[in-house]
Amino acid sequence: MHWIFLLFAAIFEVSWAIAMKYSDGFSVLVPSIITVVGYILSAVFLSLALKQLPLGTAYAMWTGFGIIGTSVLGVFLFNEKLTVPQVICVILIVVGIVGLKLLGKE
């Protein structure tokens, strides 16, 4: 169950970051509210995951999922460009997350 909590934490992590972009510096009400609620839910689910998962593993995976999710959605939602070096670095993050899951104690 703790991995599910971590997954939800990561989903809310990406959600609040995307909503923050849409909030235009907290000047648009609905995305601003989504940002705050998503941030809180992300922290709540991360704290639940940390009851069973090691801090270093869980935090690295949480932030890694956030980086991957926001990078991909930034391309599709905001027409942001990814350079080849950026893509390589994101792939390395994916490899690191997979390694943490496969080689971790949990």
Brief characterization of the structure:
The protein has helices at residues 2-22, 29-49, 55-78, 84-103. The chain has 106 residues and is an all-alpha fold. Helix 1 (2-22) runs antiparallel to helix 2 (29-49), helix 1 packs parallel to helix 3 and helix 3 (55-78) runs antiparallel to helix 4 (84-103).
| Helix-residue proportion | over 70%
Alpha carbon gap, first and last residue: 11 Å
Please provide the ordered H/E string of secondary-structure elements.
HHHH
Helix run count: 4
Question: Biggest sheet, open or closed, and with what strands and sense?
Answer: none
Structural class computed from helices and strand pairing: mainly alpha
Domains, number: 1
Please mark out the parts with pLDDT under 50 across 5 or more consecutive residues, or reply none. none
CA radius of gyration is: 15 Å
Report the principal-axis shape.
flat
Keywords: Cell membrane, Membrane, Transmembrane, Transmembrane helix, Transport
Membrane topology: Multi-pass membrane protein
Organism: Pseudobutyrivibrio ruminis
Family: Belongs to the drug/metabolite transporter (DMT) superfamily. Small multidrug resistance (SMR) (TC 2.A.7.1) family.
Description:
With 106 residues, this protein is mainly alpha-helical. It has one domain. It is built from 4 helices and no strands. It has helices at 2-22, 29-49, 55-78, 84-103. α3 (55-78) packs antiparallel against α4 (84-103). The longest helix is centred in the middle third of the chain and has 24 residues, at 55-78. The protein is flat and about 45 Å long. The mean pLDDT is 94. It is found in: Cell membrane. This is Multidrug efflux SMR transporter. It is a multi-pass membrane protein. One of its GO terms (cellular component) is plasma membrane. Belongs to the drug/metabolite transporter (DMT) superfamily. Small multidrug resistance (SMR) (TC 2.A.7.1) family.
